[in-house]
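Predict fold of Leucyl aminopeptidase family protein; 469 aa.
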Amino acid sequence: MTPLPEFAAPFSASLPLWLVRPGADGPALPEGLAASDRTWALAQGFAGTAGQLCLLPGEGGVIAGALFGIGPQADPASRPARERYSLAKAAETLPEGDWHLANAPEGFDPQLGALGWLFAQYRFTRYKQGKTPAARLVCPEGVDADRVLALAAGEYLARDLINTPASDMGPADLEQAARALAARHGARISVIEGQDLLAQNFPMIHAVGRAGAQAPRLIDLRFPGEGPMLTLVGKGVCFDTGGLDIKPPSSMGLMKKDMGGAANVLGLAETLARLGLTAGMRLRVLIPAVENSIAGNAFRPGDILTSRKGLTVEINNTDAEGRLVLADALALAAEEKPAVLISMATLTGAARVALGPDLPPFFCDDDGTATAVQRAGRDNADPIWRMPFWEPYESMIEPVIADLDNAPGGGFAGAITAALFLRRFAGEDATYLHFDIYGWQPVAAPGRTKGGTGQGMRAILNALPEILK
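Predicted 3D structure, encoded as tokens:
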């Protein structure tokens, strides 16, 4: 696992970092700034635009501090800022040393700033050495350092798991990552593998994964705690060839990330456990871990599979496999009647067409829960967007010769029909939410290196006090 970042010691000989917004008549330089530094900044053309850095000189040519532009104040409720982590660019561009925030302009969230700083420290160096930003931040006054570090730990875990290629992150490796998490936090783990999936009635997990180089399995973690039950289900397709409906190379290149749902639920569990929140709930994490591969025993287009719930499913595309493995896991979860049941999956290209890679949709029938989760995402720089379980489309997932169709034709409403399919297995006792995430940052941005990324974790975490009752 990538080493976790640290804050600088609060009593270190840190340098001041002044945060500046642009103004109508030039940068809104803070009042505490020395006159010579003001003159220097203006002479350098410093304007306070987002990401702009101006180092301040001291006696003898040393650096005495820096000005950093965080851009104009934005109201996330009406118009989110173009960069969600305004301070992250400073972490990436400041010279080595310890820095403290010398001011906090109106509208600046120091906790979010500190989190973005830690996210900017992430580099995936398992296979190639890379230079980690060397500027360290003194945790800003009033910021809960333990909470921010726990959030970073969950994000780092999710990124590491997604970034690791299938050669080192097959179903058995994903199981080991889950076992390591369980060992860190005293959780119980059980795994059902291979033919035992059939014996214990997980036929669709077995069907999808039986052609893989590693045996399919269902990973089940339970964390010690008392209170309402929260069950997280994450899609763990460690590589997806598309099966016999094989993907073209252009679509297969990123399929190491098809276990992004599993990575995100494990990352969320890591954060919950580090914060001690698992003690106040009964947290369960279920991960169906498979490879969707091609072999003589691969499941075929036209096959009819009988699910754990007893519903039959006609296979009209073997590349719509994620909903199949999730269905068996959701059916198991529903048998225990949790208070809240959440699935996370890199499920449909339709979601990316609708909202792009940076804004994952989620589905929820309960308006109060949906509002709480979307608000938590907005307030914590974890954007998500609600889409409907649109009842009139139910007929699209009902074929002629089976109860359900795993890949209805026509090309319309792919994200919605996939969510409707999953809802059939989630039961009626739990508040159910489904997140159709991308799990990948296609272009590097401040605080978000190119590669695997967490999506929806902080939205869920910060909404839990309201929705888990």
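The CA atoms of residues 36 and 322 lie 61 Å apart.
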